[in-house]
Amino acid sequence: MRKVIILTVLVLCCTVIFSSYATSFAQPNVETSNLQSNLSSRELLQGYLTQAPSRIAGTQDMVNARYFIGNTLEDIGFPSNDLFKLLPNHTYYCFDDNGFEFEDDFGNLLYGYNMYAFLIVNPTYPTIIIGSHMDSIGQGATDNASGVVASLMIADILFSRQQELKCNVIFAYFDAEEVGCIGSEYYAHQLNYYPDSIDVDAMINLDSIAGGDNLYVYAEDKRTDMCDYLANSHPNLYQKPINAELNYSAGYWTYGYYQQAFASDHTEFRVYGIPTAVIFSGNYSWKQMGFVQSLDANNCVMNTDLDTLAHFNSLPNGYNQIDTVASVVSSALLDSQFVGICQNVAKSQLVDLNLAYGTIAPLVVIQGIVAILGISAFTYHKKLRKDAILNPAEANNNSIFKQADYHDIFNI
Ligand SMILES: [Zn+2]
Prior knowledge:
Low-confidence stretches: 13-24, 243-255, 355-359
Mean pLDDT: 81
Number of domains: 2
Oligomer: single chain
CATH superfamily of the largest domain: Zn peptidases
Structural class: alpha/beta
Bound molecules: zinc ion
Number of strands: 12
CATH class of the largest domain: Alpha Beta
């Protein structure tokens, strides 16, 4: 009986340990270092921040930002299209002229406008969104000019290699992220509720992808193949299964990354069941009570007025990080293995959104069962020892009562 209990406890412990590492290790096929954009990350970032230095949603700078992105897409080769269509069937970029309403912090009614570039190479192929938000708090060189620039570089790489693509790509440039992910919510809602809209298989969000100490890719509250693949693409890109670390980010147990604890544009797609991954240059660690952009306090400038071009230029790796992300994501989208993961595997690896605490709730239940079994085993063993003291001869013949125990009790 005791062996059975010990075995059960061991099996349950192993289940708890391995449940966090259940996915396979997806390895990239494509040599990422070969893929470089013709566009310079330094020139793009400086151009964007010069043309639109303070991109608060609803202001003239957002118009300027969209024109900078539109002009760059046009230079890459994307033709413009005045009419935003929900069912794109060719390659073009467009402004979303309809826009959406939102309120600023003072209750003023404002309008936001996303923009998109569609690289639809074959309507039967799976479709992946590359998202980045255009707006910022202050100048926002890291958050999120860096993500916009990487997205433009990816558009440049993939536009010139579109014959090789085995997926369609939608480059979405979101407005009004900083005031509550309103642009991405608007687009995700359109994708979900309009019957003729395109089916999206996955979304990769590029938010603040440069300016922190390292690059991280976040996915579900557990490892996923999407996450594994991207993290294994480059030695400077680290995987972050969210689990306890991110759930603890606000100083108390809260929700998974797709909910309020880590809200960025991917959240709006994830709640509709679209698999997502986020590349982010900040590290979440519960030991340090939340978001850590850098171990150097002077470099923790995100969401402050210090997130400027001048500060970004002082960083040793800022532009390298943008180039790395552009290369990694372009390579992934050109690799049929990664596209296959997005199309066939990613949905099955989503955690259940109905579990308020992500993977925490089932782990607590399993750990509770382990604790009960452990206490039962301890109590049973104590009873055997008591019985043995009362009846040594019988205890000595008891096959499940180890000889060592007998010697221990009777000191022989
Ligand atoms: Zn951001």
